[in-house]
Write the structure tokens for this entry.
Amino acid sequence: MYFEIKFLKMYHLIKKIIAFILSKRKLKLVSSRELETQKLMLGKLLSNQLKTLPIQHFHEAEFKVFSQWGDDGIIQYLTQHIDIQHKRFIEFGVENYTEAVTRFLLINNNWSGLVMDGSAENIHFIHQDPIYFLYDIQAKSHFITQENIEGLLKKYYFHQKTGLLHIDIDGNDYYVWKAISTNPEIVIVEYNAIFGAKRAITVPYDPQFYRTAKHPSNLYFGASLSALFHLAQEKNYALIGCTSAGNNAFFIRKDKLKECPFPEKTPYEAFVPIKSREHRDPTGHLTFTPPEIGIQEIRGLPVFNVLTQEIELF
């Protein structure tokens, strides 16, 4: 017990140090290269600490190195416990890949990967990043749709033999996952917590879906956790938890549940309300409106019920 407490204190201390380093970068007291080096060093320490900690709850494994929230820690903890046959990942909606859930996996664990984004400028940025020649990664510019995703994965030889898939495209996430045939051990999909925990709904499919253009509030996008849960059941995956920020849902292929350190959950057990205030005004500026107030702007918009296969009103 003494050593468990000691390791736990060290773990939380390292997380505080990372937060401090990030604050120095915001004040421009360190360069971006120095920041990445320091974050990687501390992230490696955190990853090693996870192996010795008595983690009991999903959120206890969270830490952030390159992920927007605590996904880096969860991924490290899962890959330490689950036997991943192929150390390869797919992630799309990565922007310029400086903030992504697979970047730490690429650098710290030397996985191979395919990342895609709709912006050619973002992909050009990745191509100029030193990671592009130091590590085994492909970066391609494509606007992902239900119709093209399988062809793209086959084109770049990632339609099979992958260990982790992350979908975050702020729109057709449900439909794109449905269209993907590859079945990695770990799947992470962004859910729209604004849609709540009960209804199994998603935005109606539109191959040209763009979040801000669809509704200026920026709150009308993606799928509810319940909708993703039912799709996961169809694909033989189990929901094991959501990030404490209320944005990403984690799924494990059911044949790997015995190795997974976390039990299967229902959408009601796993659901976490959104913490961030993403509402925007018609000019595109953040208003910092709380989610429970901003939600009123998208009431009455059409949503697709994945269970009844019918269009309803939100």
Observations:
- The CA atoms of residues 171 and 222 lie 4 Å apart.
- The chain has twelve helices and ten strands.
